[in-house]
What does this fold into?
Amino acid sequence: MDDQNIYERVSDLKTRFVKTDSYRKLEIEFNRLLSYRKAEIASGTCREARGLVVIGESGAGKTTLLRRLFETHPDLILMNCETIQADVVSLSIPSPATPKHVGLTCLTALGYPLRRDRTTSIIWEQVHHHLKMRGTMFLHLDEAQDFSNNRSVSDMEAVINTVKSLMQNRDWPVGVILSGMPVLHKLVNHDPQLSRRMTPIEMRQLDPLGDQDMIYSSLHQYCAAVKLELDTNIKSSAFIKRLIHSSAYEFGILVEFIIESIENALLRASNSLSLNDFVCAFRRRSGVVDCLNPFVIEDFEMIKARSILTNGQNEVRK
It folds into this structure.
């Protein structure tokens, strides 16, 4: 097998998706909101929209979960250049994350960039107008923790009022989906009116005991997709614990490690995935020497996996 064929197979692996408990909860809650919204549109009623807040650490897989939800949902038309209707508009929060700048980014995503300066209120009036014209039911704002990072109380309240105005609009209410790091709690909980309108989806960290079966199943599925066997040294509970720790207890990072390790196995023309493939994947990803590689050392829990290089050394968990 030549290298090009290998990378095509690895690229195909990256499109695969494992349905976790977090995804199933997200799917249930989103379908519920979507069904209510469609029923209201059909009956000509306009009630306040509700939203979701998806919270997890970096590497948890928040963006992947939401992208998968939107792209594979049978009843959704996503924002694209070929249709006017856009049931869901999804974009990342720009920097600086001021209401005005976010509003301008929304207009650009909707295909209506402003050519001259306008006030924040006029910008968001335009955003809402174009969301209505496109029949948008949900606006997804990714990396929404930037709304609250290093912001004054007045700035946070301006963001909250902007979000609420979309959801409360009597003419065309729009559900808001916020996704971001745990500090996003600060923004949502700052205003009781906002928090009661948002259903939280918490992407919990991996449990070295409770999630072992799920992770082993995922490992087996990815290997089976490229016809690789599993070496005996990675068919153990001890290895799964190392894999979880090396992934900083985040499922998104864990999947990346699996795929990168499979790439190593394919490049060495092996018919099985071995522990050394994970050793090499961590070495390349982190830049650390093997005495700081959690797939190598005995006391692997002392390694702080999120650290790559700090003044030439990997940090140790306090």
